Amino acid sequence: MIAILKHGTTPDQAQHLIQWLKKMDLDVHLSEGKEVTILGLIGDTSRVDMELLNSLEIVESVKRVSEPFKQVNRKFHPKDSVIEINDQVKIGGGHFAMIAGPCSVETEDQIIEVAQAVKAAGAQVLRGGAFKPRTSPYAFQGLGAEGLRLLMAAKQATGLPICTELMNLVHLDLFADVDIIQIGARNMQNFDLLKEVGKTRKPILLKRGIASTLQELLMSAEYIMSEGNENVILCERGIRTYETYTRNTLDLSCVPVLHGLTHLPVVVDPSHATGKAYLVPPMAAAAAASGADGIMVEVHNNPSCALCDGAQSLTPEQFADLNRRVEIIREAMR
Amino acid sequence: MIAILKHGTTPDQAQHLIQWLKKMDLDVHLSEGKEVTILGLIGDTSRVDMELLNSLEIVESVKRVSEPFKQVNRKFHPKDSVIEINDQVKIGGGHFAMIAGPCSVETEDQIIEVAQAVKAAGAQVLRGGAFKPRTSPYAFQGLGAEGLRLLMAAKQATGLPICTELMNLVHLDLFADVDIIQIGARNMQNFDLLKEVGKTRKPILLKRGIASTLQELLMSAEYIMSEGNENVILCERGIRTYETYTRNTLDLSCVPVLHGLTHLPVVVDPSHATGKAYLVPPMAAAAAASGADGIMVEVHNNPSCALCDGAQSLTPEQFADLNRRVEIIREAMR
Amino acid sequence: MIAILKHGTTPDQAQHLIQWLKKMDLDVHLSEGKEVTILGLIGDTSRVDMELLNSLEIVESVKRVSEPFKQVNRKFHPKDSVIEINDQVKIGGGHFAMIAGPCSVETEDQIIEVAQAVKAAGAQVLRGGAFKPRTSPYAFQGLGAEGLRLLMAAKQATGLPICTELMNLVHLDLFADVDIIQIGARNMQNFDLLKEVGKTRKPILLKRGIASTLQELLMSAEYIMSEGNENVILCERGIRTYETYTRNTLDLSCVPVLHGLTHLPVVVDPSHATGKAYLVPPMAAAAAASGADGIMVEVHNNPSCALCDGAQSLTPEQFADLNRRVEIIREAMR
Amino acid sequence: MIAILKHGTTPDQAQHLIQWLKKMDLDVHLSEGKEVTILGLIGDTSRVDMELLNSLEIVESVKRVSEPFKQVNRKFHPKDSVIEINDQVKIGGGHFAMIAGPCSVETEDQIIEVAQAVKAAGAQVLRGGAFKPRTSPYAFQGLGAEGLRLLMAAKQATGLPICTELMNLVHLDLFADVDIIQIGARNMQNFDLLKEVGKTRKPILLKRGIASTLQELLMSAEYIMSEGNENVILCERGIRTYETYTRNTLDLSCVPVLHGLTHLPVVVDPSHATGKAYLVPPMAAAAAASGADGIMVEVHNNPSCALCDGAQSLTPEQFADLNRRVEIIREAMR
Q1: Cα separation of D299 and D102, whole Å?
Q2: Of B115, C227, C268, D199, which sits most exposed with the smallest number of CB within 10 A?
Q3: Which of D251, D283, D291 is opposite residue B290, by nearest beta carbon?
Q4: CA–CA gap between residue A298 and residue A277 (Å, rounded)
Q5: DSSP bridge partners of C4
Q6: How many Å lie between the alpha carbon of C241 and the closest alpha carbon of chain A?
Q7: Which among C33, C182, C171 has a CA at the least distance from the CA of C99?
Q8: Are A184 and A120 a contacting pair, CB within 8 Å?
Q9: Residues of D in contact with C315 (CB under 8 A)
Q10: Nearest C-alpha of chain A: how many angstroms from B135?
Q11: CA distance A15 to chain C (A)
């Protein structure tokens, strides 16, 4: 970490700061220039509160030289992590997974039907919401525990592992048979929840917050890993920008950037990012081209509800077609 | 709510959609133009999933005409809400409060000293962090329950009501003697936490998420009120933008905008927004000029730690000086 | 266009507004609800100042139903536009172009060497900056007119058409032999410059402003077309967000969105968006998967300057490799 | 400037870079750590292309230690600049100016009437648009040269200096009698226009671009000053964020930040930032509290057009009331 002191800092003030830093077991290298004085902090700077340091009156700015994340850091773990789902499916290190299913679990028939359809079309994991985070308290909040039960029925019927969202740490016991626990974008910095799932050994799919930096995403993954759980999958799902034609802006360049920074696999969710079905296939294909380790996509199979045909969900046929193209693209990028 | 259908929508498709909407107990007014068809939805549209509707293939766009929030809405509650803190302090409806104190509770001596200093300088409420949300799992996470105990000692010593952050719903019992429960920016959409504090009758200070829209902030307040707790105070603390000279961008125009949309009081926190002590007085003064119902500011009193003089905290003297100016500005804006 | 009037608007106020709108040759349909009154404006609303209307005291909000752009609108021109470059190269409507070359033109040898190298590697158009927009007045501003002369030498040597940026309308005469005139992101709303290039019949590559909405991009294209020049190519080059790991955030979902809104071709520039060479191949591949009509990429060939090996430019070998992969991806997405 | 080299950079690569930097007349201090190597660049780094340096393969990141701007920099010019307008009005260094007038010049009667009204209400400068930058080519583009003539008539009638926007460098001759030339937000990085007004000695009001950083704003001011014109006034007018309740987000913390970085005066335009008349008085008052050197506000006086009463313009009465409050606030902040 480097701290640049303001022009006009007195030697006394600088010494005061240096003593304070040394108390944190850091070595401090002082290099004085004509216009600025630079402190180089050597040692374990992950404990230094960068914002506090930056807010000091004599400090012009602070810059990390080494990243504040450790266990997720590729520098200390150069090989790609491969996350194993229930001894069936692998994600990362060249293994690619299609995670598909409906937005919400509605009925047993619905979820089993969709599960069979997405399996036939090539999905490796079934997704479906039981606990749903909703902006409005008056909106449908999901079937809850009953939704989990229906997902288990679909798992039994098809053999597909299940990925579904946990919103509340008191519900963790209910997730014993869930194969991948999803932490949603709104809870990416719900640190107590992260610690709790960090104590399990289950695969965790951690979605990027709607306005989170990649460093914040990695620090949240670090929370999980620091509790002992190494099975973390990162998920890009669109960020908030000023543009309003799409629901969010899918940030695909984060895929190769994250692959440089961390050994953890990166999955992309184009359904939530774009909010429109016609945008899902091109953006899923683009995600595959960018090097993603998996794609999470909404698929439904509800012939009785013609309405849904236009929602952000693909039909099983569209999903099968997408799978075929993604396979070719992955081959082209090898 | 208005739904604009795409050019080329067939009468059958439109009728299908209309029947679906009518099942939600809505009246639907159809007005067909040459280029577009417009559906006007009349009734309780707060239950309609606007994103789902918007994602339908035949729908060009959707626009809410009436706001999705009810209990927080000024239309249905024209008079300003006045939140009473412990029968001592009022916020809103012309009542203004200065909430001051250190970033974190450290020791009993520290918190009592600061409490006495901010009280003497004009503060009505003491703030101080016991449970601290930290980006890094390796950073100091606050004194926790012990921090709450020290805050109570400061309350006893000075009589000042206490405002401190709750991060985890399982800790709620520990907050029995806290006067204002703060929900931090990162938990603004932790809906289960909102529901839980909604079941209490304590004043809740709800901070705007770092990239939350005003409507999302109001919907989160609605979560609390829909559980029966009417004592909600909104707090602007800076939003995330591309600008990097300040930690966040303080959005002061939200103060008069929120006053138009809701009857709830609005407090501004310039310390976290700007991250630099020298920016706090001008931005606190600007907050008062914009019509804020209170200001939340970091103040410390630690003569043994000369370092802290430059942090985002004001000294008690600077805080007293600010109070004097804010008083004049509030008078000028009456 | 729809205008929603505020609750409490008097009939007199509404009539006043309606009369004002009718003077603009618009038909106004009034529909009064219990909570709101809605005005539907029928006719040529492209002349209505939406911001002025929105700022009126009695107006709650305004929404366009038909887009404000006409000549660029796919609704009125359903077939893809195919832009012909110098009778040699086509862009759009299934025709794809690779536009490659160095960031800046430096010397005759340099530009001819790169031109030969990119041609051999599969480029259809040579790019290179002669007039360079620079944030600092002290930075190298490009070779100017001399740079244009060197580009012509490279064109003569290779037969490749030239694409280069125009910053100042008084320089237009110098661009007589340039094949594609580029309008840079900073000048996307330099309306007088747009009108000026609209009076030519040359292909114009219009870059999206760093924080421009897609609608603003299309309105700027409309400026060019409204002066009679139909040869407009849109170019996505990254937008400004809070994320700092990449220089800008490449918004690839704009490709299928723009293809829905307009008949004009869409090209993607991953070099400027990402600012790092290692991110260019995955993002160029992703752009092809998203349906782009072309890719604009920095390539250099400067064995004497080992330094440049790491800049945002690809080597000709990397570029040839990318071309091969892009071809397969385009095939997969057909 | 500091360049941090990547872990794994070979001594040869580092030496190569160092030689390249030394050719630019820079001293380079090398400090090698276990994990990173840091280069400190001493000398005139304003010519170093930071983006190019940052894009090099061996470079982890680059940080400026001294700002890239010189003539606008308070470090080299500690005293506030005071800009004199036509020997009548001063802005900066404790001098405050109210710049008021209509959005567009429409007729001679209109502009003279408004000029008289704002003068009576306390304005020091008359603003009014003759050349109008409009998103749509079909919208009213202003009266142009005729508008300038009408502004001169208003100047003659009232003695108020005139501030109006220049969009096109070929129009500069028409602005001979204009007292403050405004460069609009969309042209903040139209560098050729900046150079051209830099060759005059007229006061230039430079508006911050809609998504410009403060550093970019200062670099654009540097363009003007580097051509010899020291009369630059900076203007904050709202930035683009994800929030949609206001047209833009007024960034008031930029006022004290800019006062720290530069000696140039800072004016705030709350009318364009918010887009609604009811938000103008609180935000203008907040601007005064934040330390602004002037306020630019839309005022109209058009009793025949009841409609306009609700636009983003204030009436002369509202403007006079605002002036009175601003005076008290400025006194309180002294």
Answers
A1: 5
A2: D199
A3: D283
A4: 9
A5: C38, C61
A6: 6
A7: C182
A8: no
A9: none
A10: 6
A11: 32
Residue identified by tokens 């705030």 is D268
Is D69 domain-assigned?
no
The number of distinct structural domains making up chain A is: 2
Hey, what amino acid is at C14? A
- Report the CATH number that the domain containing residue A14 is assigned in CATH: 3.30.70.1140
Instruction: Specify the DSSP class assigned to residue B1.
Output: -
d(CA A262, CA A81): 9
Residues A56 and A111 in one domain: no
CA angle A34, A39, A44 (to 5 degrees): 170
Claim to verify: residue B99 and residue B240 sit in the same structural domain: yes
- CA quadruple D143, D145, D146, D150: dihedral positive or negative? positive
Nearest to B7 among C4, C75, C241 (CB): C75
- Residue of A65, A67, A249 to mutate, testing the D interface (most D Cβ within 10 Å of its Cβ): A65
- The partner residues of B3 in beta bridges, in order of sequence, read B39, B62
C97 and C237, same structural domain?
A: yes
**pTM, to two decimals:** 0.94
β-strands B204-207, B180-183: how paired? parallel
Residue entry with tokens 């899918």 = A250
Q: C69 lies in a domain?
A: no
Number of H helices, E strands in chain C: 10, 14
What is the C-alpha separation between C101 and C111, in angstroms, rounded?
Answer: 8
| D65·A36 Cβ contact <8 A | yes
pLDDT in tens, chain D (334 residues): 888 888 788 888 888 889 888 888 888 888 776 667 888 888 888 778 887 888 888 888 888 877 889 999 998 899 999 999 999 999 999 999 999 999 889 899 999 999 999 999 999 999 999 999 999 998 889 999 999 999 999 999 999 999 999 999 999 999 999 999 999 999 999 999 999 999 999 999 999 999 999 999 999 999 999 999 999 999 999 999 999 889 999 999 999 999 999 999 999 999 999 988 899 999 999 999 999 999 999 998 765 454 555 578 899 999 999 999 999 999 999 9
Whether D166 and D49 map to the same domain: the answer is: no
Which of B39, B63, B87 is the endpoint of a domain?
Answer: B63
Q: Do residues C199 and C299 share a domain?
A: yes
In a domain, A69, yes or no: no
Q: Which two structure tokens, joined as six digits, stand for C232?
A: 């407009």
Give the domain range for residue D50. Answer: 2-63
B145 plus B256 within the same structural domain: yes
The chains in contact with chain A, meaning 3 or more Cβ pairs closer than 8 Å, are B, C, D
Burial class of residue C18 (count of CB atoms within 10 Å of its CB; 0-12, 13-18, 19+): middle
Helix, strand and coil in chain B, % to nearest 5: 40, 20, 40
Residues D51 and D79 in one domain: no
Q: Which residues contact A29 (CB under 8 A, 6 or more apart)?
A: A39, A40, A42, D31
What is the least distance, in Å, from the CA of B88 to any CA of chain A? Answer: 32
Whether A154 contacts A99, CB under 8 Å: no
Phi, psi (degrees; rounded to nearest 5) at C115: -60, -45
| Residues of B in Cβ contact (< 8 Å) with C211 | 242
| One-letter amino acid for residue A265 of the chain | P
Q: Which of B31, B63, B95 is the last residue of a domain?
A: B63
Q: Is the ipTM of this complex over 0.95?
A: no
Separation CA A240–CA A251 (nearest Å): 10
D253 vs B243: CA distance, rounded Å: 11
Domain assignment of residue B68, yes or no = no
Helix, strand, coil abundance in chain A, percent, nearest 5: 40, 20, 40
D52/D96 same-domain check:
no
Q: Which residues contact A308 (CB under 8 A, 6 or more apart)?
A: A300, A302
Taking residue D77's Cβ as centre, other Cβ atoms within 10 Å add up to 15
CATH value at residue C319: 3.20.20.70
What is the CB neighbour count within 10 angstroms for residue A79? Answer: 8
Residues of D in contact with C275 (CB under 8 A): 51, 54-55
